[in-house]
Design goal:
Order of helices and strands: EEEEEHEEHEHEEHEHHEHEHEHEHHH
Pfam family, one: Oxidored_FMN
Oligomer: single chain
Strand order of the largest sheet: 5-6-8-11-12-13-14-15
Bound molecules: flavin mononucleotide
Keywords: Flavoprotein, FMN, NADP, Oxidoreductase
GO molecular function, one term: FMN binding
Domain NADH:flavin oxidoreductase/NADH oxidase N-terminal: 15-359
Organism: Glaciibacter psychrotolerans
Length: 403
């Protein structure tokens, strides 16, 4: 970590070092992690999504990854997920990707299939599986699918185990969604291979007890995710980056995947065409009595990210309670990760990247949207003059420490 001698402010330069991958250049290493907002009807982008995600581009994020977007209707988590299973969903997505690009962020999207964890209520209704009471209100549950007929937890629906033909159809649906994502203008396409969703559920012995080509030993459990990766890579133009979010550990008391298993899968994933491994954890079970979540300390996936980077040689993204610019820069400088993703921190402060830059740089407003920057520069000068004159700032947001 370098320090500016004049004022001893830390200089988190690594965070602001551009990164070029295939046809994209991230202006900085801070991205917005995919976060479901459950605001879509029929999978369609709404004004809400444009404003919600557009704020992060205004706020200087190098990469904005659109929330888990279903590749087919039964792969939605809830009735209100975004989707890319239909050409009718292209226009809204195109508007979104164009807007993000126009404001300096690389437009990314996470493609997803919730598998046996599909058909649930929104988190503000406790995220429980839909039931007859929801059906009475017009939000009926739907049949869920997985590698084996094993529910995600007590009181969760029994998934239909996909047969070989259905698996082939599913691989094609991933590829079709990826084709649409690229056509809409997304330049970073992530596959949601974590949190117990369909791809993860094929990989883990907790949820996959098949005895055919798609289950049994570790290599067979990898087969479906690797087929999806190859099909998606083939569907994407060369200049589009392919990312894959893993759960680095299953986080379950008995029998789940550990870091060694996931690192081995990640090596195969990279060989099959993945450019970026995005490091998350857990989610294979919805049974709280066997769930052993990774402790939520600061940067709680950093050790996993570091290992995955060392063992795959891939570009690695890390997410999980990254809140501070110095901390974020250190993760990059120390070789834990190449990209830091922030979720809730960005919800709290969509201008996090601009604020991070201001914490060490003098070109305080050069990187802001000019309509904001041209007003905020003079405002900052006025605030400093008042502070020098000993005038007490009026609000807690204008304390000298924040200037
Ligand atoms: C509201 C919300 C929605 C989320 N939706 C997704 C999602 O769509 N896909 C995903 O992979 N992770 C999702 N996550 C997990 C985040 O991407 C992120 O990994 C997690 O919040 C930890 O990062 P943080 O501490 O910076 O928030 C979600 C998290 C939150 C809080």
């Amino acid at each position: 970590m370098t320090v500016d001698a004049d004022n001893a402010r830390p200089a988190p330069r690594a965070l602001f070092t551009p990164l070029t991958l295939r046809g994209i250049t991230l202006n900085n290493r801070a991205g917005v992690s995919p976060m479901c907002t459950y605001g879509a009807r029929d999978g369609l982008v709404s004004d809400f999504h444009l404003v919600h995600l557009g704020r992060f581009a205004f706020g200087g994020a190098g990469l904005v990854i659109v929330e888990a977007t279903a590749i087919e209707p039964r792969g939605r988590i809830s009735h209100h997920d975004l989707g890319l299973w239909d050409d009718a969903q292209l226009d809204g997505m195109r508007r979104l990707a164009t807007f993000l690009s126009a404001h300096g962020a690389v437009p990314g999207i996470q493609l997803a299939h919730a598998g046996r964890r599909a058909s649930v209520r929104e988190p503000w209704f406790a995220g429980a599986p839909l039931d007859a009471s929801d059906a009475a209100a017009g939000w009926a549950p739907w049949p869920v699918v997985g590698p084996s007929a094993i529910p995600a937890g007590p009181d969760w629906p029994l998934p239909h185990a996909l047969d070989a033909h259905e698996i082939a159809d599913s691989v094609a649906a991933w590829a079709a969604a990826a084709t649409r994502a690229a056509a809409a203008g997304f330049r970073f396409v992530e596959l949601h291979g974590a949190h117990g969703y369909l791809l993860h559920s094929f990989l883990s012995p907790v949820s996959n007890v098949r005895d055919d080509d798609y289950g049994g030993d570790a290599l067979r459990r990898m087969r479906y995710p690797l087929e999806v990766i190859r099909a998606v890579r083939a569907a994407l133009p060369d200049d589009v980056v392919l990312s894959y979010r893993v759960s680095a550990v299953d986080g379950i008391l008995d029998g789940g995947l550990g870091l060694d298993d996931v690192a081995e899968f990640a090596r195969h994933a990279v060989a099959a065409g993945v450019d970026v491994i995005d490091t998350s954890s857990g989610g294979i079970s919805a049974d709280r009595s066997t769930d052993t979540r990774v402790r939520r300390g600061f940067a709680f996936h950093a050790d996993f990210a570091r290992e995955l980077k060392a063992r795959t040689g891939a570009i690695v993204a890390c997410v999980g309670f990254i809140v501070d610019p110095e901390q974020a820069s250190r993760l990059i400088e120390d070789g834990d990760a190449d990209i830091v993703l922030l979720g809730r921190e960005m919800l709290d402060d969509p201008n996090w990247v601009h604020h991070a830059r201001r914490s060490h740089a003098d070109d305080e407003f050069d990187h802001w949207e000019p309509r904001y920057g041209s007003a905020l520069g003079p405002r900052l000068g006025a605030l400093r003059r008042l502070a020098d004159a000993g005038e007490t700032p009026l609000t807690r947001f204008e304390q000298p420490a924040r200037l």
